[in-house]
Amino acid sequence: MIKKEVGAWIWLTGSLAELSPLDRRTIEHAATVMALELLRAGSVAETAWKQSGEILSGLLTARGPASLSFIGQAEGTGHDLSLLHTVIVTGRGWGQNAGLQHRLTRTVGLPNRESRPRSLIGVHQDYVVTLWPLGREPLESARHAHEDIRRRRAQSG
């Protein structure tokens, strides 16, 4: 359990009664390691979400040389803002819901997590904003991004 939520399940073959004390201790140790790893991953995701939001807010509000520093910060996190992007804005107030943040980040981030350039997603003035990089055919890329987000959203319910 992490923050009063089930973070993962450990499935074992056989009966618990058949486990020796050493087996039980080994399983407890494995569960502790897994819980710590899940907690670490959650902290990394929260930090990335906050950093992306700060970069987006800076890009959308800064003028002149200040905006160049945010472009540099974005590049440092794997985002190439010199390319053409489309802006996707979601409903007001969504940025305050941590569960929704996680689902949106997975929905928008998974399709291009391994590829470069990556999309940049974060909260700006209580709106979730995504800068989605467009390929060689911008309209087709934007249509593909829209369809992919719609399909993933429908799948997650």
Would you identify the regions where 5 or more consecutive residues have pLDDT less than 50? none
Strand content: 5-15%
Backbone shape: elongated
Secondary-structure-derived class: alpha+beta
Mean pLDDT: 77
User: What proportion of the residues is helical, as a percent range?
Assistant: 40-55%
Lateral arrangement of strands in the main beta sheet: 1-3-2
Q: Radius of gyration, rounded?
A: 20 Å
* Secondary structure: number of strands: 3
Number of domains: 1
Q: Output the helix-strand order.
A: HHEHEEH
Q: What is the terminal-to-terminal distance? A: 24 Å
Number of helices: 4
List keywords for this structure.
157 residues; alpha+beta; 13% strand; elongated
Structure description:
This protein has 157 residues and is of the alpha+beta class. It is built from 4 helices and 3 strands, in the order ααβαββα. Strand 2 and strand 3 form a beta hairpin. The protein is elongated. The protein starts with 20 loop residues before the first helix and ends with a helix. The model has no long low-confidence stretch (mean pLDDT 77).
